């Protein structure tokens, strides 16, 4: 089970995620209580070993803004939320980063349909921590896809069993308040996701 921990802002939480075995960690570079500057993302990403994917999260920025912030932050992946046309993904190909498309259950659920490498199927309001009917997408997404939206250490096993994703992505569920991560919750989440024995 591939696990991404999103919305990290402090070195101690980056370390906790890496040491607990996260496959990917995300930095939010869009409007949010979790927002960090590209310079801060670079500082945090510089401490991450190369086997862990560093991801910059965007929602609504132009391709030019995404490109600039990605280069500035030095991350290895870009996650785009919202209704981006295929051309926006194509335009980022030359950066050589992993492209992640994030959308709701009504989006095109074929990973790769927009030339992306990974797909996230998320709640209607990304980063809100609101659970949704994960079972509604069971059997529908194709390829490498992560389930997100309202996951936490206590429900991730149930969510995995309901939707049978390739991976999971969490932010609010490993926080004690919006934007405030907790190392213990990060470890518990990774432990619970891995204990499902899938993948
Ligand atoms: O985290 C945010 O505030 C955010 C804002 C705008 C677009 C995306 C955002 N976050 C993306 C993620 O953290 C995850 O991909 C996912 O939505 C997890 O959300 P949740 O675990 O429900 O908080």
TrEMBL record:
It catalyses: N-(5-phospho-beta-D-ribosyl)anthranilate = 1-(2-carboxyphenylamino)-1-deoxy-D-ribulose 5-phosphate. Its EC number is 5.3.1.24. GO terms for molecular function: phosphoribosylanthranilate isomerase activity. It comes from the Bacteria. Keywords: Amino-acid biosynthesis, Aromatic amino acid biosynthesis, Isomerase, Tryptophan biosynthesis. SUPFAM superfamilies: Ribulose-phoshate binding barrel. InterPro entries: Aldolase_TIM, PRAI_dom, RibuloseP-bd_barrel, TrpF_fam. Gene3D superfamilies: Aldolase class I (3.20.20.70). Residues 3-191 form the N-(5'phosphoribosyl) anthranilate isomerase (PRAI) domain. This is N-(5'-phosphoribosyl)anthranilate isomerase. The lineage of its organism: Bacteria, Bacillati, Actinomycetota, Actinomycetes, Streptosporangiales.
């Amino acid at each position: 089970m591939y696990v991404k921990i999103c919305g990290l802002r402090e070195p101690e939480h980056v370390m906790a995620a890496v040491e607990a075995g996260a496959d990917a960690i995300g930095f939010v570079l869009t409007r949010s209580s979790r927002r960090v500057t590209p310079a801060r993302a670079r500082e945090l990403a510089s401490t991450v070993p190369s086997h862990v994917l560093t991801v910059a999260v965007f929602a609504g920025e132009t391709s030019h803004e995404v490109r600039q912030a990605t280069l500035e932050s030095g991350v290895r992946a870009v996650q785009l939320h919202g209704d981006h046309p295929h051309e926006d993904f194509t335009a980022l190909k030359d950066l050589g980063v992993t492209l992640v498309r994030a959308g709701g259950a009504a989006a095109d659920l074929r990973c790769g349909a927009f030339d992306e490498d990974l797909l996230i199927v998320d709640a209607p309001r990304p980063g809100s921590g609101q659970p949704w009917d994960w079972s509604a997408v069971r059997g529908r997404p194709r390829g490498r896809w992560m389930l997100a939206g309202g996951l936490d250490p206590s429900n991730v096993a149930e969510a995995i069993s309901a939707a049978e994703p390739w991976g999971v992505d969490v932010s609010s569920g490993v926080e004690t308040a919006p934007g405030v991560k907790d190392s213990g919750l990060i470890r518990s989440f990774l432990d619970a996701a891995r204990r499902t024995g899938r993948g």
